[in-house]
Task: inverse folding
């Protein structure tokens, strides 16, 4: 078992707060609770959690504002999982733009919440120590492609949108976030898994070939995702971030 | 040519009104012309008769005084446009039967009949012709030869003036009718554009009183409809928002339940409530419609990634065919339509099949096929209504009928058509035909 996670839950609904806490504690996590911004800052001052679960819709200072403040201040390296009440594209866009690591739409299954928390923590641990985490820019440029991290699709050099499935996007994000690094199949599986409660039954190799198809990248002489026999894959293109509205 | 349609007359109000106005004006014009001409003829005739009366009595008196030998010399001087004198008995015949000749005969008798007994008779011939016979004081016969001309010839410029008048009338009726019918067309256009997205064009509240009033009433009606729509969306959003928190609490409580069968049952109920709430919110949002900006996309990547998402979630969804060229459309709406159709296919048959079809004129059709129970033919259109359910015996009575309503609304907003039909061999085909590229 991994080290015990310390989760800070920020939600104005007492029942939800307590219920989540009960479930997470039953599953071996340590939990702190806050009903709003003031209690959250107080909790952070007394002990730094591994992850913050933050509700968007709260009276007073809402989750989006809190998230922005967290990302701007000394707590910017703590991963954040947003809980949103409305299933809407704009909420998702805003949630990720303000620097949340992931989001979950209410109502959700607590098992899903736990899986997401663990996935985020796994990803966070892969980031080298001392690495300054930055807000994810809206666009990541590589080769002739532009990856839109808000819309979760590719844009080619002519401006045509190329859609990605959820799994394809997650895999590409892992590659783009770790360019020029050898990633084993196990690592890729670990990093892409966790969004779904269902076991991830598609093999990484199949997913890579699907992604290559999207990138119009041949398997024989790939420009972006290179196969290293018996080792794994390497994303070989240079990645440049670009902010939105450009 | 269809005779009955000709009998019914032109279809447009514009043509009908123009024709009625024009016909009425032409008839009135003709009557005026006719009355003027009749009046003119009457005046002319009475003028001519009084002339004849006066001049003939003078001429006869003159000839009577002149010695018989000098009379022939005088004759040419006494000739007028429509009568002359003959020194002799002339031609005898029947009494004049024509009205004008009779009037002239009577007038001559009246003016000189007291001194000279006069006999008037018509002379047969192609034109009206009469003679009056009398004897002068010395017993010499005198014949007055009259060729009455009733009508003065028309001036040559008259037809031109009439023509110009006709053109003026036609132009005026066309103009008047177009003024009257233009607001109707604007009204129809505004009503047509009042689509599902409620971005209607406002009518200008100016112009003639009646038009301004109609425009004002129409705009007010648009506002009311917009308000009702907004209210409906707000209620939907409020209900679903307020439901989300209790459902979330219950979801987590069930996760903490120890009794596995109870937990599964609760969770199934909650899932149904949850999807209803989500679809309710989504349906409300589709009414805002045109919010998404159309953009160039690779449609094959969209279909393949959609199928990939379903496969990853463990659903049986397949794709055949490809479109092969970028298209301009609203990707989020398109994806949502297809996902709703696929969800339905999976719900009723356990699997869904996507096929594409590009016609030679670049019309793109995407179909979602299933081998489920299908829908009775008379209900194929009705299932697009929100919350529509087939009767209890229908296999498709399960589920909350919002998916198809959302798909139809989104298709409308992106100018696509969405239709359902039963497949040969069983099952349903939902066919989405995208707007033809310009």
Result:
């Amino acid at each position: 078992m991994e080290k015990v996670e310390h989760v800070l839950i920020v939600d104005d609904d007492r029942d939800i707060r307590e219920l989540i806490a009960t479930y997470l504690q039953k599953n071996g996590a340590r939990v702190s609770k806050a009903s709003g911004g003031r209690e959250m800052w107080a909790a952070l001052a007394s002990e730094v959690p591994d992850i913050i679960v933050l509700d968007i819709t709260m009276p007073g200072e809402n989750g989006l504002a809190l998230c922005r403040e967290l990302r701007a201040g000394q707590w910017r390296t703590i991963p954040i999982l947003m809980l949103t009440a409305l299933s809407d594209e704009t909420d998702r866009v805003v949630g990720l733009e303000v620097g949340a690591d992931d989001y979950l739409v209410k109502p959700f299954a607590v098992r899903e919440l736990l899986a997401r928390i663990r996935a985020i923590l796994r990803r966070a641990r892969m980031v080298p120590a001392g690495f300054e985490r930055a807000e994810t820019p809206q666009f990541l440029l590589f080769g002739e492609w532009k990856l839109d991290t808000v819309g979760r699709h590719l844009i080619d050099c002519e401006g045509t949108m190329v859609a990605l499935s959820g799994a394809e996007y997650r895999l590409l994000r892992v590659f783009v976030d770790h360019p020029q690094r050898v990633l084993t199949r196990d690592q890729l599986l670990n990093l892409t898994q966790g969004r779904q409660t269902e076991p991830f039954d598609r093999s990484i190799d199949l997913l890579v070939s699907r992604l290559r198809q999207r990138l119009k990248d041949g398997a024989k002489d790939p420009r972006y995702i290179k196969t290293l026999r018996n080792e794994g894959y390497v994303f070989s293109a240079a990645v440049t971030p670009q902010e939105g509205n450009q | 040519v269809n005779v009955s349609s000709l009998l019914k007359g032109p279809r447009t109000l514009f043509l009908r009104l123009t024709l009625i106005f024009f016909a009425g004006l032409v008839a009135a014009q003709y009557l005026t012309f006719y009355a003027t001409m009749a009046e003119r003829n009457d005046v002319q005739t009475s003028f001519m008769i009084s002339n004849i009366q006066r001049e003939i009595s003078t001429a006869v008196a003159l000839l009577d005084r002149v010695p018989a030998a000098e009379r022939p010399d005088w004759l040419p001087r006494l000739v007028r446009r429509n009568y002359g004198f003959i020194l002799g008995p002339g031609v005898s015949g029947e009494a004049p039967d024509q009205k004008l000749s009779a009037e002239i005969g009577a007038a001559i008798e009246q003016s000189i009949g007291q001194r000279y007994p006069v006999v008037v008779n018509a002379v047969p011939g192609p034109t009206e012709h009469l003679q009056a016979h009398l004897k002068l004081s010395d017993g010499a016969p005198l014949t007055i030869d009259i060729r009455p001309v009733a009508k003065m010839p028309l001036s040559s410029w008259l037809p031109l003036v009439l023509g110009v008048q006709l053109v003026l009338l036609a132009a005026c009726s066309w103009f008047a009718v177009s003024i009257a019918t233009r607001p109707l067309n604007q009204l129809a256009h505004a009503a047509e554009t009042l689509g599902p997205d409620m971005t209607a064009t406002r009518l200008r509240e100016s112009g003639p009183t009646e038009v301004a009033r109609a425009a004002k009433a129409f705009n007010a009606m648009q506002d009311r409809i917009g308000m009702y729509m907004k209210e409906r969306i707000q209620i939907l959003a409020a209900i679903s928002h307020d439901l989300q928190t209790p459902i979330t609490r219950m979801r987590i409580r069930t996760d903490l339940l120890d009794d596995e069968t109870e937990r599964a049952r609760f969770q199934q109920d909650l899932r149904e409530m949850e999807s209803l709430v989500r679809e309710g919110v989504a349906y409300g949002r589709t009414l805002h419609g045109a919010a998404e900006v159309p953009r160039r996309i690779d449609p094959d990547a969209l279909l393949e990634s959609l199928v990939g998402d379903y496969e990853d979630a463990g659903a049986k969804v397949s794709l055949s065919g490809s479109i092969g060229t970028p298209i301009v459309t609203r990707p989020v709406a398109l994806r949502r339509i297809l996902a709703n159709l696929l969800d339905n296919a999976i719900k009723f048959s356990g699997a869904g099949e996507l096929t594409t079809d590009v016609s030679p004129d670049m019309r793109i059709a995407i179909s979602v096929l299933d081998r489920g129970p299908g829908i009775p033919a008379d209900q194929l259109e009705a299932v697009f209504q929100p919350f529509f359910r087939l009767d209890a015996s229908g296999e498709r009575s399960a589920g909350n009928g919002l998916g198809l309503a959302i798909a139809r609304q989104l298709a409308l907003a992106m100018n696509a058509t969405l239709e359902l039909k039963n497949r040969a061999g069983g099952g349903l085909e939902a066919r989405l035909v995208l707007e033809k590229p310009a």
In short: Residues 195-201 of chain A have pLDDT under 50 and may be disordered. Chain A touches chain B through 41 residues (CB under 8 Å). Chain A has eight helices and 13 strands. The first strand of chain A starts at residue 6 and ends at 10.
